[in-house]
Specification:
heterodimer, A: mainly beta, seven-stranded mixed sheet, four-stranded antiparallel sheet, B: mainly beta, six-stranded mixed sheet
Chain lengths: 115, 113
């Protein structure tokens, strides 16, 4: 079946550094990928929609300069948390739309901890 | 804010019993609904989906019911097993024919042996 691979699964970084999270579709081409953020014991909040070859569309309240999204190919989208601060610590999850199946599949998530 | 919400944050069920998880949504334009299961530290796992032109859909041990009149969605799990213990989220699309999802708050299901 379709698999969305997300790396790294866990990252700890110092405040002020940047962190890149990768989301790959392994068995299919994903024209659209979505990035979510989840706080402990909370629901998923959509951050942005990433379309291959075009700029990402950010949800209201999400800083596009803080959360850089690149979707350079049909199988890879990246989220870079720039100049990370402790308040950016969260669980980040990507999902990919499989057009021919009309389904969404999620990555395993990345736990970011900023010290 | 979230347009999808769950009635109960927690549900404790005896192993072997049936579970029913409820969800209310407010966006009458939504035409695609999904149930996800999330285990601790992992991403959401697709369980079952339903489109607005249906009111019931069955999978393996799971059934999703959609009542558009009262904007209500439910997930029924038959013969609940310990492995079913997780947080369950309902989600709806934010606009027709779209795949941007709005998630409910989640229900934590605990299966008692």
């Amino acid at each position: 079946g379709a698999v969305v691979s997300q790396h790294p699964s866990r990252v700890i970084c110092k405040s002020g550094t940047s962190v890149k999270i990768e989301c790959r579709s392994l068995d299919f081409q994903a024209t659209t990928m979505f990035w979510y953020r989840q706080f402990p014991k909370k629901s998923l909040m959509l951050m942005a929609t990433s379309n291959e070859g075009s700029k990402a569309t950010y949800e209201q309240g999400v800083e596009k300069d803080k959360f850089l999204i690149n979707h350079a190919s049909l199988t890879l989208s990246t989220l870079t948390v720039t100049s990370a601060h402790p308040e950016d610590s969260s669980f980040y999850i990507c999902s990919a739309r499989v057009r021919q199946w009309e389904k969404l599949f999620f990555g395993s998530g990345t736990q970011l901890s900023v010290l | 804010g979230e347009s999808v919400g769950l009635h109960l944050p927690t549900l404790s069920v005896q192993e072997g019993d049936n579970s029913i998880i409820n969800c209310a949504y407010s966006n009458s334009a939504s035409d695609y609904f999904i149930w996800y299961k999330q285990e601790s530290g992992k991403g959401p796992q697709f369980i079952i989906d339903i489109r607005s032109n249906m009111d019931k859909r069955q999978g393996q041990r799971v059934t999703v019911l959609l009542n558009k009149t009262v904007k209500h969605l439910s997930l029924q799990i038959a013969a609940t097993q310990p492995g079913d213990s997780a947080v369950y989220f309902c989600a709806e699309n934010m606009a027709p024919n779209d795949y941007k999802l709005s998630f409910g708050a989640g229900t934590t299901v605990t299966v008692r042996a």
